[in-house]
Amino acid sequence: MSEAKPRVFSGIQPSGEPHIGNYLGAIKNWVPLQDKYECFFCIVDLHAITQAFEPAELPGNVFDVAIVLMAAGLDPQKCTIFLQSDVPEHCELAWVFTTVTPLGELERMTQFKDKASRQDSLLAGLLNYPVLQAADILLYHASLVPVGEDQVQHIELTREIARKWNARYGEYFPEPEALVSRVRRVMGLDGQAKMSKSLGNTVGLLESPQETWEKIRVALTDPARVRRTDAGNPNVCNIFSLHRYFSSQAELAWADEGCRTAGIGCIDCKRRLTDNMIAELGPIRERALQLRRQPDQVYEVLAAGASRCREIAAQTMAEVRERMGLAGVVTPAQTKVE
Ligand code: SF4
After folding, report:
1. Which regions in the chain score pLDDT beneath 70?
2. Residue 215: what pLDDT?
3. How many CB atoms lie within 10 A of CB 231?
């Protein structure tokens, strides 16, 4: 009998059209995992609502993320793609976990402190975000979680939550490991902060080649390189950082040398980067636009994913309720209104 593959869980927020930061930091790394592990990729809409959002736009954002995931190479025959709110047990387990999670641990999360510092009125959902994340992962007994460096602290908290729950109610949940992406955080085109839709410094994966070029053309470079004849320093230039993801070693050497000697202008450098980005991302965009014309196919994938996840989630919650004495006193049949 062949051994079961370890389970992988990861999530992506539907907070607007996915951008190259999402692609490089997450989606691109997920594609090879589906051949090695039993993978669950979740569109985490319940996480997205912890930040400002527009209800009317959320379904469209979910759809855009789904088509990008599939277009980038996630194959529904090899992995499970689903929408978080289609599986209500995520919320139920999150509530259960709040009862074993120390408040102080949540308050010291770097991401919470960072986001909280940018909000006037602090809501509990933001504080409890990592608890829901722990529920997302442990509901499926995932043992590996691909994340960026900024999420490692949340995975450590997930391990602690698993330990605390297990200590109280008996060994049941695994302590998952973070699979940390080798891609360091992808900076936005303003070169000031992580690429993020809310900061308006992104290149969207569904943008046309012309739109991509228009954004790259005006993106920040080495601020000290004011004139074409000034030599630049590629190490402080975000355009050069993006070259590292999309360009060959020979082109990196070309940009490095040309920048330091003023042999090339920033426009030459940006044009080459844009061409390479379009070469890699163009086929993904084409497939995504094709899927956009076949919404039924996309919703079928999400429905099948949700159905599989609900089955697993129901088993997990039955065990959790049993161990916690939450077995209930009313059967579903008794709750029917006559
Ligand atoms: S030549 Fe390229 S690496 Fe150098 S400052 Fe301009 S855009 Fe940046």
Report:
1. 1-2, 331-338
2. 96
3. 13
**CA–CA dist 115, 284 (Å, integer):** 31
Q: Are 238 and 191 in contact (CB under 8 A)?
A: yes
How far is the C-alpha of 240 from the C-alpha of 264, rounded, in Å?
13
In one-letter notation, the amino acid at residue 39 is: C
Mark whether 28 is an active-site residue.
Answer: no
In a mutational test of the pocket of ligand 1, which residue from 218, 226, 230, 240 has the highest number of ligand atoms less than 8 Å from its CB? 240
Pocket around ligand 1: residues whose beta carbon is below 6 Å from it?
221-222, 225, 232, 234, 237, 239-240, 255, 259, 264, 266, 269-270
Evaluate whether 131 touches 96 at the Cβ level (below 8 Å). Answer: no
CA distance 338 to 328: 21
Could you give the domains of the chain?
7-186+295-335 (3.40.50.620), 207-291 (1.10.240.10)
Reported ipTM exceeds the 0.90 cut: yes
Q: In the prediction, which pLDDT does 229 show?
A: 94
Distance CA(86)–CA(102), nearest Å, equals 28
- Residues found in the chain: 338
- Which DSSP state fits 247? S
How far is Cα 136 from Cα 124, in angstroms, rounded to an integer? 18
| Cα–Cα distance measured from residue 264 to residue 238, given in angstroms and rounded to the nearest whole number | 16
Alpha helices in 145-265 (DSSP H): 152-169, 209-217, 238-246, 249-260
